[in-house]
Amino acid sequence: MKEIEELKKALNPSETLFVVDAMTGQDAVNTAKAFDERLNFNGVVLTKLDGDTRGGAAISIRHVVNKPIKFISTGEKMENLDVFHPDRMAQRILGMGDVISLVERAQQSFDEDEAKRINSKIRTNNFNFDDFLSQLEQVKKMGNIKDLMGMIPGMSKAMKGLDIDDDSFKPIEAIIKSMTPKERQNPDILDGNRRKRIASGSGRTSWKSTTS
């Protein structure tokens, strides 16, 4: 803290943000208070805020240091850094979800022209595995899967205690990529022999295990 305090005096930054791990709970509050007494920072960035139970840290820090929480992060990439909205956090803590943030992420990740193309293919019953694979890629760009599901009203309670792996789409992607271009575009041609080959190519022991 002494070194950072000296850096602030030497550099005279226009703004100082305190980054804290939300998983540390009460320790995050104590740490924020100690740093604020030495640095008098302007705001807080909460990381690892990928669960509703950690919303308490946000409320406590705001109360103790009386500084705004400006950003929150739910992952390790820049796209996982979001502006903090207290009303949305309150809704998530209460299990009401955060539909607005979910829509905003979708708007940032999905291409409008691509969405129209997919919609047209679904309406005409021409949606194939290539289109499905494209949609999976778009969803992955939106961020942490568990965090996204938590934005849906009622889902936080339903997912309590569940561990959703961000790599859960990989087996599905492996299956589709083990298909030939013709099979992706015409799923109706998939017979027993083709299914067995696809299962083997995607690292599965049988077709049943690939679809379960």
UniProtKB/TrEMBL annotation:
Give the Gene3D superfamilies listed for this entry. P-loop containing nucleotide triphosphate hydrolases (3.40.50.300), Signal recognition particle SRP54, nucleotide-binding domain (1.20.120.140), Signal recognition particle, SRP54 subunit, M-domain (1.10.260.30)
| Keyword GTP-binding (UniProt) | yes
MF terms from GO for this chain are:
7S RNA binding; GTP binding; GTPase activity
- Name the chemical reaction catalysed here: GTP + H2O = GDP + phosphate + H(+)
Q: Where is the composition biased (Polar residues)?
A: 202-212
| Stretches for region Disordered | 178-212
Report keywords, A-Z: GTP-binding, Nucleotide-binding
PANTHER family from the UniProt entry: SIGNAL RECOGNITION PARTICLE 54K PROTEIN SRP54, SIGNAL RECOGNITION PARTICLE SUBUNIT SRP54
Q: What is this protein called?
A: Signal recognition particle subunit SRP54
List the source organism.
Answer: Daphnia sinensis
